[in-house]
Each structure stands twice: as C-alpha cells, then as structure tokens.
C-alpha cells in the first residue's frame, strides 16, 4: 500500500509518519481489505490539530475519516478509530460487493466548478446572470449500483454523491436528507 502523509503548513516528522503507516496498516489488515493507497493530511485549526485520512480500496471505493484533538497523535488516533468503526460496519457489504464485482469500479471524467459565494455587488451579477467561477477542476464519476453509491457516500462521509447508475446507464445522485434518510435522484429520459 502506498502512503502519502503530509501536513498543511505543519512539519511532519519521521516518527509520526512511521506511526501512521503502522497503525493504518493494522486497521486495514484487521478487516482484510486490499487498499491501494492512503492519503493522510494533518493541519492545524486554531488550537486543535486536524487529521484527514482517505483510503482507496481495490474495489474502487474510498473510505474517509476526519478527527480533531489538541495533540497531533491524538488527532490521528481519533481518525483511525473512526476508520476502524466504518470498516467494521461495512465489512460484510464491502466483501459482498467485491465478490460480485470482478473488475474495479469504472470512473468517468467530468468537469467540476467552484462558484463564488454571493457578493454584495448584486447589481453587476444581475446584469450578467452568470455566477463567477472561482476554480475549474477535473473530477471522476464512478459507475456504481445504487447500494454501492449509498455505501460509498457513507464511507466517504459525504453529504451527496453523483454516480453513473450501472443498471440504467444514467447519471444519478444520492444524498443525505435532513430527516436522516437517504434520497435518490434518478432522472428519467
């Protein structure tokens, strides 16, 4: 497994990198997953350290967790516990989906845009009726079943997931509703 351990405006020492690789490796081995790579990012938010971990599994799904603590090692430990809990909850489903899927999840390219937040100068925006694009990036849209999409959204901790529905060959969306349930948007042609 490839590890990428980095810090946002923080120096990450060799001891922390070794600790992260050892602990994260043991969590992944515990559940028999076959991860391909892991990205661990440490940052500081006020007086707290923040640790974000994203692990890409060989099935094409991603697992993500985030933790906060006053100490950098404690932030990683909290994140590792969350990752452990997620993988424990989804172990059976991950194995079932992986057995039914001989090939990794297919990814399709798409453009992703970041739009500027509302500005005080409403008159100039009203004239153009076009939002200001702050950034344009390339993103990947996975080809999943609805069940896999819900599981991927839960594992990644995301509020919404856009995916290509394998059963109907269309683009669909799953999202977390305010009442705690999952919503599914399936546009019909």
Fourth-level CATH superfamily of the largest domain: Ribosome hibernation promotion factor-like
Percentage of β-strand residues: 35-45%
The CATH topology label of the largest domain is: Double Stranded RNA Binding Domain
Q: Are there runs of 5+ residues with pLDDT below 50, and where? A: none
CATH architecture of the largest domain: 2-Layer Sandwich
Number of domains: 2
CATH class of the largest domain: Alpha Beta
Main location: cytoplasm
Subunit structure: Interacts with 100S ribosomes. Associates exclusively with 100S ribosomes, which are dimers of 70S ribosomes.
InterPro entries: HPF/YfiA_ribosome-assoc (IPR050574), HPF_long/plastid (IPR034694), RHF-like (IPR036567), RHF/RaiA (IPR003489), Ribosom_S30AE_C (IPR032528), Ribosom_S30AE_C_sf (IPR038416)
Organism: Pseudooceanicola nitratireducens
